[in-house]
Amino acid sequence: MEFADARVGMTVKLKGKGGNTCYGIITDVFLNSGGGFTISLPDGEKTSLYQTGTNDIPIMDIKVVEYKGFCVGDSVKVVGDSAYSGKTGTILELVGSVVYGDLAKIKFHDSPNTPYITLINLAIQKGKISAKSINDSKFRSYAEDVIKEALNRAGVPWRIFSWELTTDGKLTITARFDDKARVGVAKCHPDDRFDVCIGAQVAVQRIKEQFISEKWKPKIGDIYWVSLLDGDGGGFDYSCYTGGRIDQIQLLLGNCFKTHAEAVKNAENVRKRYKAVEEFLGGYDNE
Questions:
Q1: Which one of 27, 42, 67 terminates a domain?
Q2: Which of 35, 38, 103, 168 would be 116's cystine partner, CB 3.0–4.6 Å?
Q3: 215, exposed or middle or buried, with CB in 10 Å at 0-12, 13-18, 19+?
Q4: Would you say residue 287 lies in a domain?
Q5: Is 58 a domain residue?
Q6: Residue 110's pLDDT is what?
């Protein structure tokens, strides 16, 4: 990505702290200090990148994945006044050009050409995605990153995962953990635009619901173990199940275990779920 291509509202993929892949939104493009832009990250933090000077994140490692309703991997048709009118293809790249405006690099289904076409001359093929798009290496890499992030943010335990996408927009995700496979399915409505991010969230939520329903549920008077929040000093503790409000919250978060060993084994997943809830509610600092 080039500095000149940055536009407010672009969703970008980048390497965050610790080298992990994350997604952020460009919230500001500025001319002072030589020019640059600001990215808002999922954890509420912001990072500013400058055209001159040293940046913590290499600019070339940042990729635009969504802009003005178009996503990398979308199946589109060229419409309007264009030499390629009527052709269909897959979006490989999104850019904002000072000279030519907002553009998408397209890989056509019936030719090797990959021209840049203005967004106003593109129409998204709703509710479906081509087989060539599904098998495109760039799209598959992007989709796998999205699914992995959805699994981690939901706190779903997984050792390996696989996924399958059909041309009618049906996404099937299989997550394996403890030698058991759990499957989540999301289907794009024919009148909606296919969005792998939304599909991953829906499918992962259905996997999470299966996992929670399989968990051991204590009866009134049973002793159960929990993983403590960092703000409570970390570690583990046990409690007597009474069916009260706190007990119900622990059940919903999947933080209710029959033994101390199970609580230890699942501690990291519990903390991920807590963090996801904190972010959803606005977040607070435990440190």
A1: 67
A2: 103
A3: middle
A4: no
A5: yes
A6: 78
Overall domain count for the chain: 4
Shared domain check, 206 and 138: yes
Claim to verify: residue 121 and residue 167 sit in the same structural domain = no
Closest to 121 (Cα-Cα) out of 79, 163, 63, 65:
79
Nearest to 74 by CA among 65, 83, 82: 65
Q: Which amino acid is at 207?
A: I
Tokens representing 114? 């990959």
Interacting residues of 227 by C-beta distance below 8 A, sequence separation 6+: 236, 255, 263, 264, 266, 267, 270, 271
Residue type present at position 126? K
The answer to whether the CB of 6 falls within 8 A of the CB of 16 is: no
| pTM listed for this prediction | 0.50
Instruction: From residue 36, give the alpha-carbon distance in Å to each of 5, 32, 50.
Output: 10, 8, 4
- The answer to the question of residue 286 being in a domain is no
* Residue range 209-240, pLDDT digits in tens: 887 767 778 899 999 999 887 655 568 999 99
Tracing tokens 């992995």 back to the chain, one arrives at 148
State the residue range of the domain holding 238: 223-281
